[in-house]
Amino acid sequence: MPDSQRAERGIIDTSVVIDLEQLEAEHLPVQLAISAITMAELAAGTHATPDADERARRQDRLQRAEAAFDPLPFDADAARAYGRIYAAQFASGRKARRVRALDLLIAATACAADLPLYTRNPADFQNLHGLVDVVAI
User: Fold this and answer.
1) Pseudo-torsion of CA 36, 136, 87, 32, nearest 10°?
2) Sheet strands (E) in the chain
3) CB 8 within 8 A of CB 28
4) Best exposed site among 12, 13, 55, 78 by fewest CB in 10 Å?
């Protein structure tokens, strides 16, 4: 897809950051952004494995993300958007324990910034129609 058909800017979630090197640029926005929540997930991920090799890979990924991105903050606008995002999930009847809170915080950041959200896990963001443009890749 030529750059003229790609979104100018979009937020990539943690699943996309993890797979970024394997993804074709044509499926991504021209300018990538991430949420501070994604950076937190990456930081936590380095401690979430007992395997030393995997921990080193995760640390490397975190350091590359820190060098490449200035994350969008979870600010007052995102907090207000989170209320709408949470309400949409609650109204859908989706069980709270099946909804990952961090995913909803990332979606709220995208909503507040009025940016599409690119993910490898679109099911994590279902029922957000009209709030966030979720792009599955």
Assistant:
1) 30
2) 9-12, 31-33, 117-119, 134-136
3) no
4) 55
- Cα 114 vs. chain centroid, distance in angstroms? 14
Q: Are 117 and 110 spatial neighbours (Cβ–Cβ below 8 Å)?
A: yes
Phi-psi region of 70 (alpha: psi -120 to 50; beta: other; left: phi over 0): beta
According to DSSP, the residues that pair with 10 across neighbouring strands are: 32
Residue by residue, pLDDT tens for the chain (137 residues) are: 555 688 999 999 999 999 999 999 999 999 999 999 999 999 999 999 999 999 999 999 999 999 999 999 999 999 999 999 999 988 887 655 555 899 999 999 999 999 999 999 998 898 899 999 999 99
Radius of gyration of the chain (CA): 15
Q: Give the separation between CA 65 and CA 127, rounded to whole angstroms.
A: 29
Grouping H, G, I as helix, E, B as strand and the rest as coil, residue 95 is: coil
